[in-house]
Design goal:
Two copies of one chain form a homodimer. The first copy, chain A, has 223 residues and is of the alpha/beta class. The first copy, chain A, has a single domain, classed as Vaccinia Virus protein VP39 (Rossmann fold, 3-Layer(aba) Sandwich), CATH 3.40.50. The first copy, chain A, has helices spanning 2-20, 26-32, 47-51, 65-73, 86-98, 114-117, 146-152, 169-181, 204-210; strands at 54-59, 77-83, 104-108, 122-128, 161-166, 185-190, 217-222. In chain A, strands 3-2-1-4-5-7-6 form a seven-stranded mixed beta sheet, sandwiched between helices. In chain A, 43% of the residues are buried. The interface between A and B is medium-sized, with 22 and 22 residues.
């Protein structure tokens, strides 16, 4: 119990830390970047035909290490990073300016907008180290709550596929139950990802926290 | 990877150890015990009316600590311990002779017989620390393989409910996927049972291995 609590605390502290570290003019930089989609709703239902590629989306991309590296090694896929905080996306914009990739776009908005942005557009949704919202009364804000899983129903092109990673045991247990209750089947589940023999691109957060010995969980679901 | 391999090894060693420790006349003692059902197929489809209670079954009861303690605190449920090895059941018979309970019976047979013994009889099936069968070619022998989950289809009275515990990460990951593929929903999942705040009766094996710091996994599924 203590262990779980400590992990939650660590995540909250980090979450707040990331959000509070505001970067001056981040909003302007992100807004004016050619990598940013500022009118995402106008592409709703047309992402695939616009970009002529399959669409993979990450919600909560933070500074974008994961999605940037994914885009680099998968040039035939269009990646879209959805992130609420411009201060986080700022780092991804700077990275893209230094070393551009054609197949990565940014959307600076809240996750709750996801079904206003996409309609039968995407193939895979990534949820990496989302906020665990540890208090019971906040569980509905989790990106794997009933509310969000309902929102995701309309965003997928054909087969629905969600890939989730977290170091938060409570969030992971909750999410497994939630996915299954929403009729997702499990493609793979990893209860100790960094000791599993599979290819894995780490997020910035994941790199930092796995070094401290925290276990990383991963699940791939589909329907 | 090393960690997982070590755990598998430990389980194999213990499994073999338990099986090799043969007790003289165990077969005779178990066969002649009033607590043993020697003709379980004759009760097929009639367990509930025979015992006038709901039926909970554990497959692979070993020395029976878990099911004995469950029977003690749930007098309104009839518990049936299914175990292949008389040398393991011997200890349960001796325990029952010293301190009898009315609502516990023993069946000495292989798990593969389960659908020959029960037909719409049982309410809950317990699978505690089953053999992990670590080699891929032996996975079909796991008590949560497709073969076994198909067998369980006919044994439940109404709602199907299976409760599983293990310290084997690979077996647990496999079983979660297998349950969900067989359309079970997840009631609860615990990725670190002994640090969860829930009531738990430990098996003999569980007591020994949790002391060594191995994580215990538990899942409750239903359909």
């Amino acid at each position: 119990m203590l262990y779980a609590k400590n992990i939650n605390c660590a995540i909250i502290v980090i979450g707040v830390y990331m959000r509070l570290k505001k970067i001056k003019n981040a909003d302007t930089v992100v807004l004016n970047s050619p990598f940013t989609i500022n009118n995402p709703k106008e592409y709703k239902g047309k992402y695939k035909e616009t970009f002529k590629k399959e669409i993979y989306v990450e919600i909560g991309s933070g500074r974008g290490k994961f999605i940037y590296e994914m885009a680099k090694i998968n040039p035939n896929i269009m990646f879209i990073a959805v992130e609420k905080y411009a201060s986080a996306l700022y780092k991804l914009v700077k990275r893209l300016e230094l070393d551009p990739v054609d197949n990565l776009k940014l959307v600076c908005t809240d996750a709750s907008e996801i079904d206003d942005i996409f309609d039968k557009d995407i193939s895979i949704l990534y949820l990496n180290f989302s906020d665990p919202w540890p208090k019971k009364r906040h569980h509905k804000r989790r990106l794997t709550s009933d509310i969000f899983l309902d929102k995701y129903e309309s965003i997928f092109f054909d087969k629905k596929e969600i890939v989730m990673k977290t170091d938060n045991q409570d969030l992971f247990e909750y999410s497994v139950v939630s996915f299954v209750n929403h009729n997702y089947k499990i493609k793979n589940i990893y209860l100790d990802l960094h000791n599993a023999d599979i290819f894995n691109i780490k997020t910035e957060y994941e790199e930092k926290f796995s070094k401290k010995g925290f276990r990383i969980y991963k699940i791939e679901v589909y329907k």
